[in-house]
Amino acid sequence: MCALAKVDAPLFWKKYQPRAPIMDKISAATLLEGFRALVGQSPPPIQLRTDHSAQVTESPPSHTLNTDITLTELLQALKKLQRNKVVGLDGMKVEFILDAG
Question: Where are the domains of the chain?
């Protein structure tokens, strides 16, 4: 099919038939049976929270969010970037940032 797409794109699209999405609902019992067959044991029990209280975490001091980015922080962030990844919300490829100079 890929060779046909390169040679004759309109014919490729006439022959290409997308698969219909699977819309069947799977029961919890079927999922559990499949999990047991795949892993060889039952999944761990789910622990539900009963106290519905919000978990409060300490936020960083506000002054750390209002300071300029240092060159050290920028270089550390650049080292963490990986090539051939999906573009971010800004639409910029990592390769553009790394190769820009």
Answer: 69-101
